[in-house]
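During the reporting period the student researcher (J.K.) took over the structure-prediction task from the postdoctoral fellow and processed the backlog of single-chain submissions. One of the processed entries is reproduced below for the supervisory committee.
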Amino acid sequence: MPFAAGGVTTALKIGAALADLSSLEELTVDFAQMALANLTGILGFVMIAVAVMKVFQMATTLNEIKELLAGIKRSNGVQAPAPPPMYSQSGDEMLRALSDVQESAVQPEVVQPR
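J.K. obtained the following structure tokens:
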């Protein structure tokens, strides 16, 4: 009979070990689920913080554009164009110089002063 009693004890030990294994698996799954939930919460918080920061950045940029436009409006914003460069030669003289350089000369009636 001692053998039978030992067999029951062994069977109980094996059953307890299997129960511990299933509870270990449950703990692992529970831990993974908890970690994913925390990461999801943190990621959501970060995304909301980034969105709020981006809204403030856009507002700042729009204020800067508004100030620039107001400054342009105040100073009338119209700047006189730069004057064309002054040439020391008249148009006729430049045309004659060009005809000297080119192979085909400009017709004299084109160069004649009015």
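The committee noted the following: Helices lie at 2-74, 91-101, 108-111.
J.K. will present the remaining backlog at the next meeting.
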